[in-house]
Structures are given as C-alpha cells and as structure tokens.
Amino acid sequence: MADDDRSAVSALAEFVPRLARVIAVALQSDPSVALTIRQYRTLERLLAGPLRTSELASFSDVSQPTATTVISSLEARDLVVRTPDPDDGRASLLEITTLGRTTFESAHHRVLDRLAVITEDLDDQAAAALWEMVPVLLAGMDRIRDIPHDFERK
Predict the structure, then answer these.
(1) Tell me, what CATH number does 60's domain have?
(2) Residue 149 lies inside a defined structural domain of this protein
(3) What pLDDT, in 10s, does the model give residues 124-135?
(4) C-alpha span between 57 and 110 (Å, rounded)
(5) N or C, fewer C-beta in 10 Å, the chain?
(6) Residue-wise over 67-97: b if at least 16 C-beta within 10 A, else e?
C-alpha cells in the first residue's frame, strides 16, 4: 500500500463517505419514500426472492439483532412481510411487498438521478475506466467479509 496522499486507499477514503452521503440524501429526499441505506439495501436483496433474517444479516454483514431492527421498520411500513418457510415450520421468510417494490423503485430512481449529476462530466474513456474498476472493487469488498471486524493491517 502506498503511503502518499494519492494512493488508491486515500482516494477511496476521500470518495466513499461523500458518495454514501449523496445516496443517503437521495433516499431521504421524499418523505413518502424515506429509507435508510440499510433499508434500501435490504429491499434490494429481497427483490431476488424471499430470505430468512439470518441470510439478510449475513449478506449485509450485520448482526442478527441489527437485521431484525431493519426488518421490523420495513414491516411497520408494509414494505416487507413474513411468510412461513416451507422447508422449516419454525422459521419464516421475508418477502418484499408490492408497496416495497414501488418504494424501492422510487428510491432507486432518486439515487440514480443524484449519481447522474456526479457523472455528467465523465467522457467515454473515464466512464469505461470506472466500469473497469467495478469488478475489482467488488471483489475487494467480498474479501473484506472474511476478515475479522477488529482487523488492522500491520
């Protein structure tokens, strides 16, 4: 890892918090949509199909109680429902509702509109370079899941 202020690590440290803030503002910009980033990501994951709370917690790299809190807030707004798990009568599955899909789609469009402002000055070469970085950065994010939370690089 480079120690100078122009390293990739420094670039991410500068960029990611600001990007997260742009997304958070977009998700809160319409009171009828108003989602936290965790709620948004949970709805996004449920678009693919029903999941158990433990699966959502694992995918999101959060504790089961944290996932339960997010789910409860989404249930209270009728954005998700619990259904019996056909494979385990003691468990339930979480499913996104029609209102949940509509809310997610509205939120997603708001996020994309905000991100479009950020990227509007990119030329084709810069946009292609950004796309090339996506799989590299996603692979790095996947690796981080296997590292203990108290990890510190020596």
Answers:
(1) 1.10.10.10
(2) no
(3) 999 999 999 999
(4) 25
(5) C
(6) beebbebbeeeebbeeeeeeeeeeeebbebb
